[in-house]
Amino acid sequence: MSTVDDPRTIEFDVRTDEMLVNMGPQHPSTHGVLRLVLRTDGEIVSEVTPHLGYLHRCAEKIGENLTPRQFIPYTDRMDYLAGMNMNLGWALAIEKLMKYEPPEKGRHLRVIISEMGRIASHLVGMGAYGLDLGTFSPFLYAFRERERILDLFEEVCGARLTYSYLTVGGATADLPPGWVEKCEAFLTQLEPIIVEYHTLLTTNSIFIKRTAGIGVMSAATAIDYGTSGPVLRGSGVDHDLRRDGEEIYTAMYDGYAFEVIVEKNGHYPKDHQYPAVPKEAILGDCWHRFYVRMLEVMQSIDLVRQAIDRYSTATGNYGEPMKLNQKLPKGEVYLETEAPRGQMGFYIVSNGEAIPWRARARSSSFCNLSVTSELCRDCLIADVPAIVGSLDIVMGEIDR
Amino acid sequence: MASAINNLLDWLLTSWLLSGLGLSVSTDSAIGYVVAAFIHIALIINLVAVGALVFIWLERKISGRIQDRLGPTRVGGKFGWLQTLADGLKLITKEDLMPDGADGFLFKIAPYISFAASIAAFIAIPFAGGPYPWIAQHLNTGVFFVIAVLGLEVFGVILAGYSSASKWSLFGAMREAAQVVSYEVPLGMCAVVPVLIAGSMDMVVIGNQQAGFFTNWFIFHDPATFITFWVYFTCALASVNRAPFDLAEAESELVAGFHTEYSGLRWSFFFMAEYGSMLSVSLLASILFLGGWHGPIPIASLLGLTAENGDVAGYVGNLLGLTNVLFKGVVGVSVMIWIRWTLPRLRIDQVMATCLKYCTPIAAVMFLGAVLWQYNLPGRTFFGLLAAPPAMFSVDEGWEAPPAVTTEPAKPAMVEVRVEGLTPQQVAANQERGN
Amino acid sequence: MSEPTLVDQLKQKFGAAITGSNLENVDPWIEVAPESIVAVCKYLRDEPSLAFDYCNSVTAVDYLHTDEKKAAKSEWQPHLEVVYHLFSMQHKHSLVLKAMLTRWKDDEVGELPEIDSVAHVWRTADWHERECYDLFGIHFIGHPNLRRILCPEDWVGHPLRKDYEMPLEYHGIRGR
Question: What is the predicted ipTM?
Answer without folding.
Answer: 0.90
